[in-house]
């Protein structure tokens, strides 16, 4: 079965966000390195247009997400989170966001989105330089890492940084351990 066939089956031939059956197409939920069913979403032209044009968001259209965000499909959860985030100023989307629990790996995928980063504050290093996923950085002071029970020393290199949903913090690897650090304690390299 091709990805498109499998997707139509999963989606039951309906938009996976608003259940419309009109002008359906596949949307690859970014970031995409390889096309896959897991990263595909079947959407109608109305949803697709609003996804691709944030300035054309009609928030009432997205009331459907109060139901759809409970989907078992990670791609649906990710897009529900991202779309609610875009319109959270309306009040009710913010309440839904508070209820929407995402598994760690799904949350990572959800926040890894240029549009979301543009809405949220960028995560900055000690010099005010914005972090991006995959960056490395140097510790600018000693910090005791409570959860890991060791001290990250000044001058140590933190690798493979990823952004978190807290704009003041990043995650990165030190000595094979994944730790969370304040962006301002680091200098991007
Ligand atoms: Zn739709």
How are the secondary structure elements laid out?
Blueprint: H1 3-11, E1 25-28, E2 40-43, H2 45-52, H3 65-68, H4 74-86, H5 92-99, H6 104-111, H7 114-119, E3 137-139, E4 143-145, E5 150-152, E6 157-163, E7 169-174, E8 177-182, E9 186-188
Antiparallel strand pairs: 1-2, 3-6, 3-9, 4-5, 6-7, 7-8
Helix pairs in contact: 4-6
The protein binds zinc ion.
Notes on the protein architecture:
With 189 residues, the chain is an alpha+beta fold. It has 2 domains: 3-119, no CATH class; 137-188, SH3 type barrels. It contains 7 helices and 9 strands. The structure holds zinc ion. Zinc ion binds at residues 15, 17-18, 20, 43-44, 46-47.
Characteristics:
binds zinc ion; 9 strands; 5-stranded antiparallel sheet; SH3 type barrels; alpha+beta; 189 residues
Task: Please list the strands of the largest sheet in the order they lie side by side.
Answer: 8-7-6-3-9
How many domains is the backbone divided into? Answer: 2
Approximately what portion of the residues adopt beta-strand conformation?
15-25%
- Determine Rg (CA atoms, Å): 19 Å
How many extended strands?
9
Mean pLDDT score = 92
> Which structural class should the secondary elements be placed in?
alpha+beta
Uncertain parts: none
- The dominant shape is elongated
Q: What composes the largest sheet?
A: 5 strands, antiparallel
Measure the end-to-end span.
45 Å
Order of helices and strands: HEEHHHHHHEEEEEEE
What is the subunit organization of this protein? single chain
Helical content (DSSP H or I, runs of 4+): 25-40%
Bound heterogens, unique: zinc ion
